[in-house]
Design goal:
Elements lengths: L14 E8 L5 E8 L12 E8 L5 E7 L8 E7 L4 E13 L6 E11 L5 E6 L8 E9 L5 E8 L9 E8 L5 E6 L2 H11 L8
Antiparallel strand pairs: 1-2, 2-3, 3-4, 5-6, 6-7, 7-8, 9-10, 10-11, 11-12
Length: 206
């Protein structure tokens, strides 16, 4: 073993690394979930935060960023991406107090965090791309194209807030600055664009 590094979060409890990416200088970016010890009045791991750490090639911590959602719920990342211009994206879900009517478990909305990879500064926070006030989009997956446009897919779910049981797959495209260029339910038009860009199908993200 050449190098080793540990991370212990503020809650001195559960810390899990969930995704990792490296840059051209062999710096390492790790994102995961960390129990903050506060929670949202729910038992168990209800105070998980999204923690992102940049390490040098020798595993020296260069910066640490913690994201705690607005309702101090169970926040967790699923993916980390580097663009071609020093942007670092962390994709995940932000826990909410609102209950899912079917499972009676806390609901979640998708969240996209964009950081400056060099400094760790949070540049942009993008949330819920659901199609209406009574809907939540979550379970995001994303890819970047050669021009650093971000394509995101997620589930638009009405069950969390109403008796309506329908679910729709959404696709969104964001510019490098974070401007949403379009966001629509799955359609032939955007299916073709996504597949031509990346030669993949929706099954990759689901």
């Amino acid at each position: 073993m050449l190098f080793r590094s540990k991370y212990n979060g503020t809650g001195n409890d559960v810390d899990r690394a969930l995704a990792v990416v490296t840059d051209d200088q062999n710096n390492i970016y790790v994102t995961g979930e960390s129990e903050n010890g506060r929670g949202n009045d729910s038992p168990g791991l209800s105070g998980l935060d999204i923690v992102t750490v940049k390490y040098s090639p020798k595993l020296e911590p260069l910066w640490v960023q913690t994201y705690n959602g607005q309702e101090n719920g169970e926040d967790s990342p699923t993916q980390i991406l580097l663009d071609h211009h020093g942007g670092l994206y962390v994709i995940g879900n932000e826990g909410l107090k609102m209950r899912n009517l079917k499972s009676n478990q806390p609901s979640a909305q998708g969240v996209i965090l964009k950081y400056d990879a060099k400094s760790g500064k949070l540049l942009k926070t993008l949330k819920n791309m659901g199609q209406g006030k009574d809907r939540l989009a979550h379970n995001y997956r994303a890819v970047l194209d050669a021009e650093d446009n971000l394509y995101v897919v997620g589930t638009d779910d009405a069950r969390v807030v109403s008796e309506n049981r329908d679910r729709t797959m959404l696709v969104a495209k964001f510019s490098p600055s974070g401007t949403r260029l379009w966001c629509k339910p799955r359609s032939e038009e955007h299916t073709s664009e996504l597949q031509s860009q990346f030669r993949i199908s929706y099954a990759v993200f689901c």
